[in-house]
Design goal:
Elements: H1 16-37, H2 45-57, H3 80-92, E1 98-104, E2 110-116, H4 117-123, H5 128-147
Antiparallel strand pairs: 1-2
Helix pairs in contact: 1-2
């Protein structure tokens, strides 16, 4: 049995082997990135792996921000070469790809959440309040446009 067993919410959507590979790759990538950014002195792949696994167990079958289902069947299937050739059309196929986002908990400590690649890319480096403000601004503008039609 793996230290990071496939969470129940992912049963039937990916295998233990696929999940283990995904978890390792995400933990390594985020730890490497945060070490470069010097976002903390106690960054280890092991700690990040545990934190990411916890986030998946807490509802990783759905996007943390939208509540939409994520598509775990497409993890580790994105190919840069295909993206260069297929451009937007290819990338859109991965909109619901599970990804890991950095955010802060109520005490201001780093935590990870699972969301779609599309939402994570849209949120980028925004804080949660900044992201919500952006989304609210988009919706207000949409409503103004509707009222002027």
């Amino acid at each position: 049995m793996s230290k990071y067993s496939l969470p129940e919410c992912l049963a039937g959507f990916c295998t233990q082997q696929q999940y283990t590979k995904w978890l390792q790759r995400k933990a390594v990538a985020h730890a490497r990135r945060d070490k470069k950014r010097q976002e903390g002195g106690n960054i280890t792949v092991s700690k990040y792996k545990g934190a990411i696994h916890k986030a998946v167990c807490l509802g990783g079958d759905r996007d943390y921000y939208t509540g939409e289902e994520l598509d775990w069947s497409i993890i580790s299937k994105y190919r840069n070469e295909n993206a260069r050739e297929g451009k937007k059309k290819y990338k859109k196929q991965f909109a619901k790809l599970p990804s890991v986002d950095h955010t802060l908990d109520e005490q201001g400590n780093l935590k990870f959440v699972i969301c779609s690649w599309l939402v994570n890319d849209s949120k980028s480096d925004l804080t949660l309040p900044e992201f919500y403000a952006l989304c609210e601004g988009v919706l207000r503008h949409r409503d103004r446009l509707k009222n002027h039609s």
